[in-house]
UniProtKB/TrEMBL annotation:
Species: Salinisphaera orenii MK-B5
Residue span(s) of domain HAMP: 209-261
Any coiled-coil regions, as ranges: none
Protein name: histidine kinase
GO cellular component, one term: plasma membrane
Amino acid sequence: MRRAWQRIANVSRSLYARIVFVYLAGLLLLSVTAAWVAVSQFEQLGREWQQRTQIDLADNLAQIMREPLGAGPDSPAAHRAAERILSINPAVSLYLLDAEGRVVGNYAEPGCSANARVPVGTLEDLLADEPMLPVLLNAPCSHRDSVFSVAPVRFGAAARPGYLLAVLDAGARMSMFAMLRTSSITRTLLIAGTLAVVLAGALGLLLFALLTRRFRKLTAAVERFAVGDYGQRIAPGRADEIGHLSRAFNDMAATIEAQLDALRENDRQRRELVANLSHDFRTPLTSLRGYAEQLRKADNLPAETRQAHLAAILANADRLTRLARQLSTLARVDAFERPLGVDTFSLAELIHDIVGKFRPQALEARVELVIDCAPTLPAVAADLALIDRVLANLLDNAVAATPAGGTVRVCAHATGSRVEVAVVDTGIGLSADELTLVTQRFYRTPASRRNGEGSGLGLSIVDEICARHGTRLRLQSTPGAGTRAAFDLPIA
Ligand SMILES: Nc1ncnc2c1ncn2[C@@H]1O[C@H](COP(=O)(O)OP(=O)(O)OP(=O)(O)O)[C@@H](O)[C@H]1O
Ligand SMILES: [Mg+2]
């Protein structure tokens, strides 16, 4: 029972209930007004018709009364003539008026019209050439607005002609209720009107129910979305306002869902990063600790073994330093809210600088380092520190992948409004599968894993820095023949 009340209360508060209430109230008001106007106009039509058909009545009666009136308005002859007329048509009231409209002869209800006066203007309105019907007059005896017929008439010794006035609807006028009971036209009109109103009401309720049903569907979808059902979508249907709203909701839901997916993916990557990092830090640390422990325990180790242990310790320390450096770069690149530095610098100088730093490493690996760029190369606009890292990472990979006797070439040349930089090696190359994977964080090729060096972060950092500069790292490789890694920067 309480539930039922709750439901009724909910429905009465709904948009549907409000629309229906306003609509039905409007419809009721409109139909009552229309019915009132129709019935009163209908009645007016009856009076107009009555006046129009009997407009000449007073003229005809004036001809009959002319002779008796010669003896005076109140003469027995005049009264006899009037009585004869009224016996034929009892619905008519007959009066004789002087030129000012004063009642001088009353043949309707004697005595009721003492000192009565009729406005002459109203009489003249009806006597005009094309009177606007119905012309109503306040009847001398009944004091009601009535239709009438009037004719000018001369009587007695009066200098100016007076009027013979015939009030036509002297009988009681019918009430609206009586008309309903007795007039078939009124009744038919009323029944047709009522049917039309009921039909319009029912159609309206149905239409509003259909309209608000789409709103309810939309609301239900939004509510389900709000509690976490992000797959909610609405069939937009027609291209009206609700259709637009549904489409906008679908777009919004798709955006939020995509952002949530991106957040989840980010979260997954972060967890993976932490797991990989702890592993990458632990391995060299364990090894470093092992060698240091051995050095501490045995102080009579042969000099050669001591040197080998110290070299291993240094190599592991290098690996940790390298990892820490990659991580700090990664943190800088990942900080998307931090705007990129825009430096204007000479790429040729930067290339010479970095290649210079790699010379000892290349010399040791017996790899030839070649710079292939014109000194007239235009300056570029980019984040100097990050581009430095890009070149260092690419060179590091190229030198590491190139066997003794090979060459690593760093080329740069201007194309249109950009400068393209490429690091080309004659190293071991990458297979097609590896090419698609090398830019993922922590991915290392099987060959480099055997080597033990590297964290698998270098190319992912290069890729992200390129993306943040609005360019793309382009990798081409032939296994056994070499690799070309290229990107471009805008000329300042
Ligand atoms: N020019 C290249 N030729 C052949 N293999 C390459 C080349 N560049 C990168 N690789 C391989 O692709 C993988 C990913 O390289 P990336 O630079 O991302 O990681 P890394 O070199 O292992 O570690 P890091 O650069 O972080 O020290 C590595 O296994 C690397 O050996
Ligand atoms: Mg690398």
